[in-house]
Design goal:
Elements: H1 8-13, E1 15-16, E2 22-24, H2 38-45, E3 48-49, H3 55-61
Antiparallel strand pairs: 1-2, 2-3
Length: 65
């Protein structure tokens, strides 16, 4: 059976932590920033973790399983 290919878009968007969790960046930071509060924009800069419900799908896209 051949190897699974990694989805190119996924490898640019997600990184894997040392403990095996998957990090992601937040959306809504590109434009229309004047209507967003300073606190909201600051928190959007920080990376977050993907939800457990999406874990299997993202792992398959990254060819981890």
């Amino acid at each position: 059976m051949p190897k699974m290919k990694t989805k190119s878009g996924s490898k640019k968007r997600f990184t894997i932590t040392g403990s095996g969790k998957i990090r992601r960046n937040h959306a809504f930071v590109r434009h229309i920033l004047t209507s967003k509060t300073r606190k909201r924009k600051r928190n959007l800069r920080k990376a977050g973790l993907i939800d457990v419900a999406d874990m299997k799908l993202i792992q398959r896209a990254l060819a981890l399983r």
